[in-house]
Fold:
Amino acid sequence: MAIFNLNINGKSQQVDVDPNTPMLWVLRDHLDLVGTKFGCGIAQCGACTIHLDGNAVRSCQLPVSSAQDSQITTIEGLSETGDHPVQKAWMEHDVPQCGYCQAGQIMTAAALLQQNPNPSEEEIENAMNGNICRCGTYTRIKAAVITASQNL
Amino acid sequence: MTTLDKKLDRRSFLKVSALAGGGMVLSFSWLAGCKPTTEEELLAMPKEWFELNSYIKIGENGVVTLYSSSPEFGQNVKTSMPMILAEELDVDWKKVIVEQGNFDSQRFQRQSAGGSQSIRQGWTPLRTAGATARAMLVGAAAQIWNVPASEITTSAGILEHKGSGKKAHYGEMASLATAIEVPENPKLKDITDFKIIGNSKKNVEAEKIVTGKPLFGIDYKVEGMKYAAIVHPPAFGMKVKSFDASYVLGMSGIQEVFTINIFNENYVRTFFDVATFPELLVVVGNSTWEVFQAKKNLKVEWENAPESSFTMTGFGGRNPYKVTVPEGLESSANHREKMAEYTQKPGNVVRRDGDPEGAFKKAAKVLEKTYTAPFLAHNTMEPANFFAHVTAEKAELYGPTQWPEPMSAALADRLGIPKENIKINLARMGGGFGLRAYGHHLLEAALISQKIAAPVKMVYTREDEMTYGIYRPTYSATYRAALDENNNLLALHVKAGGVPESPLHANRFPAGAIDNYLAEAWEIPSNITVGAFRAPRSNFMAAAEQSFLDELAEVMEKDPIAFRLELLKRAETNPVGENNDYDAKRYAGVLELVRDKSNWNTPAAGVHRGVSAYFCHNSYVAEVVDTKIVDSKPVVEKVYAAVDCGIVVNPDSATNMGEGAIVDGIGNAFFGELAFENGVATKTNFDKYRMIRHKEAPKKIEVYFVDSKEDPTGLGEPFFPPVFAAVANSLYKATGKRYYEQPFAPQLEMQNLKM
Structure:
């Protein structure tokens, strides 16, 4: 066990955990930020996507020890009031079915648009390909990303 | 016409209220958690609620709470079922708060998500509940205003008496309305007067979902809660021999290691009491990560399990029967071999019309094809989990379940706590697809909590989940058609089976359309457990039947849609046999609609199209799939779907469901497969188990609903079965090869069409 100082959603947080603990479980079990979801544990589904210094990363493969000096953003901190253009577009297109993967989808999309505000359809497909939606809402996800890019 | 359910009457309502301590505790409201963005959303919470029945309570300020009693797993009943209540109650949707009703068989009826039945079976009871409450509000206004109830109108939560100019909102009458006699047969709206039903409403939980609020079982936490993981045998046909926890107990955050037995020895199980492994190892500790790490390091010796048996009540309360679980470590290669043998042997005749054997004898030509599909894992995105807090007197559970009722009996038996002291609260589920109808995870969590005498959240790893069983079975179906020298269809023979069950629906189309028809079934026992998977059995039979009809149409030199319509015309005008369980006219209707909407006869350049149609869960769906070959890769460009599911409550949400089921079907048609070697599942996570991803989804999906005044029927499942054959039939057009074995991607790869 060791103490780690983290910057999450603009706030300083301290946790006392094993250095190998993935950020996913630090967020979920220790900091009660449960919007970031556990899907596979091997970085294959994207449900646990967070932003590390603005880049979309899979928190299930990110040990807490390597997240100390970075700015971490989770779905809870993407916007203060749920009004990030990606979140708004998700609601406009009524994307979610079960909703479990959607935080990860949104975080991936938000990072994409941060880096590339006007992605082509192909760029959207490539960026979103690592996020599985078992309900199959991919066509709506794509439409929502396009809408969000127009409303940035 | 169904009359008012007894559960809505005043006496039982009052009883429920008394049990609940005189008023229901509000757990949350979907509005409370988010900042209002429009004036309408600035709903002030009322000071007092008045419950008019199990589903409806009204605040003194006119705000209405509607309970959604069905479990929610993405089918969006949490929005659509309250829409039905709101319609008949005649309220402003903007003043409605939706709350999840927890499992309570006294208060609500049919709290289950399965068989695409929520809306169908909820339709009349929910309309009646809404209309009853409206009539009571009207009755209250009539008393206070001293005017005849028949002269009072309602609109969007406002009562009005035009003659006297009197007006009031529902909140003003709610208190008195609770004292009004519950009407026996309240008048339901004429469907042409619907204002909410048929007009798309957004998912009531959308904002919570997109902002990451805790909605799911896996998100739940209470003070002092422990975390638990399970270890199950590595292979079907194995069991625990011994274990050594000494190393693990020295690991950080680990508290206890023990085994649990899921059922009491003589417990008569229900259909949903599937426990693949009757004994499991459990690791309890301080966090999910720590128990996951510990389970990897647990030293366990496994041994082969002998043949065993248990007693199960028949589906729908039929007589109990004995279920035998065979011993042995099974492999997919053996399954394939055995299935091939069974296709050559006579099966059990389930239906015979005319003289099929005679017709085949005099046939000039026989077309015979065999179709197969592998086991499939459900792969819900949220792994199995449940919270349980069991004390000496009572048990409280929270988590994902499609069907709490059978589990309350199993829990009562195993925990030794009366049913009425067991509370099962319903979380939003991260997918279900049939899997969460089976409640072993509730029992496991409860047994763990009972053993450690503390609240606990048990969570499966993805690997635990994918290798636990309760799969879609592997199936095979052989179709034979007898033709005369002029290519007239003389007879059809279907023989279908699987491991461990047959997928046959003997009375479905094309039964009823062919004079000489024979349907046979066979089954091969297995210790690999199976369960409902989105449109059980239909999801395979549609693939086989609709692929065969496509090939048969080609042999008969007929257009595939025209051929099906010919058969359906026969079934409509002069049906063969008894018990045909479909409406041929509605079936033809969706084929005609998809033909027109897709411009069937004039596909775009470079597009290869296939069609398929199927009836299940009381609804009819026809689909056209357009495939292109782009850079030596099959690409599903576009899908057209036509559906007849009666009245559509929430059209955009219904469209979403259709789009999702179509994507699900395409994914499983190309990639879905779970195989076994010596009892071990060969795929354990998404690195090996290929799921459809963003790039493989069609560019466009168009969903068309038949304009209907019929009561609603199933929706979540019926879109799924036809996809497989529509894909196969379009691939045939693209490559010149028929696809008989699912999944298709490995065969395409052999043709240098890598996906």
Summary: The longest helix of chain A spans residues 102-115.
